[in-house]
Amino acid sequence: MRMDLHVHTEVSHDCRTPLRDIPGWMLRTNTRVIAVTDHDEFRGGPALQALVRDMGLEDRLSVIAGEEITTSEGELIGLFLQERIAPKLTPEETVREIRAQGGLVLLQHGFDPLKRYRLRPAATERIAEQVDLVETFNSRLSRHHWNRAAQAWAQARQLPMCAGSDAHTLRDIGEAWVETPFRTIHTPPQLIESLREGVVAGRWTHPVYALGQKQWRNFHGQFRRN
Known about the structure:
The chain is an alpha/beta fold. The protein has seven helices and nine strands; from the N terminus they run βαβαββαβαβαββαβα. The chain has one domain: TIM Barrel (Alpha-Beta Barrel), CATH 3.20.20. It has a nine-stranded mixed β-sheet, with helices on both faces. The longest helix is centred in the last third of the chain and has 19 residues.
């Protein structure tokens, strides 16, 4: 199966992907595990979990409730959250909030200096000992070089590596993945074990081209709905 741990939905301010469309796309692409990481919002993950449950797909699909949190020095992702974490806290405070919920701290976006909301380098070093997972393949970085930089950082610290499509349209979901033996994922230890057994891969798309794709797909989707 494939796992994509950085996905946005209609709950994010800059995404229109309907929650109801995601389970079918997951099955179609064999992306059996996703983390819903909407910008400073939490409700998308639980809502999609409920949808999967109502569709009778709990034994085939796993949804991790998360949030891409805007700290005072850039973004961090929290996985396996129980409730929303407020934005604009310091990175250290954000890490404490994630840990207080029993969640995992995911460092995303690699070290791409052109990513507007990446966690600042000084903050990254301050919280390095509290990072649980590192996104070593992001489909939307300015250069693939920054994925390799994230991989080297993770390997130096012996941290589990993951992939994130940073999807903002339905078709983006699953463009970055960890290939791993099939299992359902419900807890942090299960996820970490699966990542340790997996292989990180994905399709990189230049952000300018990706933005054009997003605008076209959103326009086309809106046209079809109307």
